[in-house]
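Researcher: Please translate sequence to structure tokens.
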Amino acid sequence: MTFGTEAERDPKDAMPDGDGVVELQAPAAVEHFTEAERAARGRAARAEVPRTSHATLESIPGRDPLGVLEEQATSRVPELVPIRYGRMLVSAFTFYRGAAAVMARDLVPTPRAGLKVQLCGDAHLSNFGGFASPERSLVFDLNDFDETLPGPFEWDVKRLATSFEVAGRDRNFSDAERRTAVLSVLRAYREAMRNFAAMANLELWYSRLDAEAIAAGLKAEVDKKQARAAEQTMAKARSKDSMKAFAKLTQIIAGKPQIVSDPPLIVPIRELTARAPGLDIEAGIRELMRVYRRSLQFDRRRLLEQYRFADIARKVVGVGSVGTRAWIVLLLGKNESDPLFLQVKEAQASVLERHLGTSEFRNHGRRVVEGQRLMQASSDIFLGWIHSPKGIDGVARDFYVRQLWDWKTSVNIEAILPRGLELYGRACGWTLARAHARSGDRIAIASYLGKSDVFDRAVADFATAYADLNERDHSALREAVDSGRIKAVEGT
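Model: Translation complete:
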């Protein structure tokens, strides 16, 4: 966690303050093309970059996947990096989850149709799930945007499709079962993009996938088992909120609720700052919340102002994110039975930036938030960002902020069956298409993809080839740990 005042480092990062809005230069004019011109662009791209070419996975001279991971580790909390490696060692699938930077490098020489969208940047199947909309309905959407950046739509599609192939192997599904699941993702993406291309702009913008709609669709298909499982998942998700986090993560210490210490996974700041005597934590938190508040809509600022700071702790999260600085903040509302847990997560440069160019936002927290708002149909009301030039370690860092738990749920890969993976693939493919359609030229992309399954089959072939490569990378990590090159802590 870093403290201190925020400097406005670039006009394009200017934010509204409490008294008005920072004046910005007028944006450049936007050029508008006709529907026919946009469709023609997609057909022209198909001629230049055949859809069959997307099956290609070229070998890269000097490829060093472990070197990529070790380079990432240099900017992370040193004592947490072995936990990241330990989690990536669990299976080829957990390795894949943590290796977004590796795949970004491998995608560079692959064919591109020249049709850009806002990329998730890490669109594997575990980065989709359910969460509460501001209207308090359970929606299904992408839920991780640490690597978001504009780029070629194929990169997200290939990462998502490959994740189904890798997960299917992890579950020991047959070749045919895996192929069916992967093709279900790709067909759903292609057909959804075609449908979105036919929609009016506002109709597209309001499109979303409610969890209730998923359950209803399963019932309509007379898939009672899957419908029952979906309903159980929804019921469990609705109980996962700040009250549950409060009960699980806190205890009363000296008459006040405090976050329970569980090192190395959860370490309250009172323990971390033993290394930095004299640091005024309370003052730092107040300043941090003031800076964060400025990134929220006016009404949500007023809501946040009704909460007071109670405690903060560092928390290890995810697989690929382990080692970046992630914090949980306990706030209290009208009384100690009115908690709000926020997650404050470090935002470093996207793994895509080295290959696609730097973000238009100097603050990487804002890059994450703006990408998320663009791609999601409905976003957390407390989604915001921070820049702070000084912290416990004296290093300037960017962060984004969201609620810790707000009906969040994700698929249980360890228990999923072939039919479930296929149905889940359809939901993920539709959702990714909707996110891309909001940010890119949906008409051109739909025209490029066409009505046939040529693109689907090509990317499915790519997914098989990349899953083979991923397994070799996972084995290389195990060998590096066994040889002592890399230190890993397993089972945490």
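Researcher: Any highlights?
Model: The radius of gyration is 23 Å.
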